[in-house]
Design a protein that fits this description.
about 325 residues; alpha+beta; 7-stranded mixed beta sheet; 4-stranded antiparallel beta sheet; globular
Length: about 325
Amino acid sequence: MLNDHLGYIKDDGNRTFSFHYEYRQTWDHKFNMQGMRAPGTYVKNFLRIKDEAESDCMLLILKYVLSANIATADQIARYIEFFGFKVEDLDAKLYEMVGGRLLNMFCLASTPLPEVPDDSLKFYCLDFGGKEILNHFGKNDLLDWLSINSIRSTELVNKYLTTNEFQISLLDAYRSAVQYFNSPVDLSIGSRFMRMSGEFRLQEGAVPRDFLLEVVRKDDLPLLFRNKCEKINELFKGKHIERYFSEPPTLIFMAENKEDAQEAAEIFHRMCSYDRFYLTTDAGIVDGMNDESFLRYLPVSQEIISIKVRDVL
């Protein structure tokens, strides 16, 4: 994904995300009120759209980008396809929405660039005009939404995008069973908070099953992941976890590859007494959820083995 000459991430169709944590965002435009239209203008213009399918698609894009925090055009396309929208002209539609200040867009580079290159991998997030439309048409109160929600470190960009891949793959395989999918999720541990990449619930029978997802990147190992495991262990002790779940959830760790999954499993097993956890990898999820997607750690032999997807989900 890296253009070695210019030092920015190119769009090569790859659906795995592991960018160097020191990379920085270069934005299409600054998050400020300069160039913004008068209050109410964005809603009025939206109401003027005569094609109902077009306005429904735009609203769905805004809702998805809000929930995902940051998403690629490819992720947006695959998500809206679940709802029957055509995506042939999506790039043009996203370009229009960025120009109209409904969305903003950035690329990642080793140093700030004067502009976003045409062949860079572009990442989309909500802008003030989109916020105004969602405030009018959506169910969520966005009064607390700030542009800082999208000005994130590359570490978080990696994790948001990888979480998106997990969600899309989950919807593709289990859409009728997915009760909800939230990302990220903050859980309190006494006076402290712990952020997990996502939470979701599946229900195919009478009993719902809850899951917590944590995306683990190579740069997290071992130190950052050890810190996360310490918090997870504390969360599951006592009554902290009972504030959120009637039954303790299943943990899923999504690593870059099997080697990193092995290391993550060993760290978690050493530090935590909770054994209802599984692992997966970028390749296992991007290729679709199947019997090669999930892994289980065997403490006695200290190895990870493939496990049937039905035994996890």
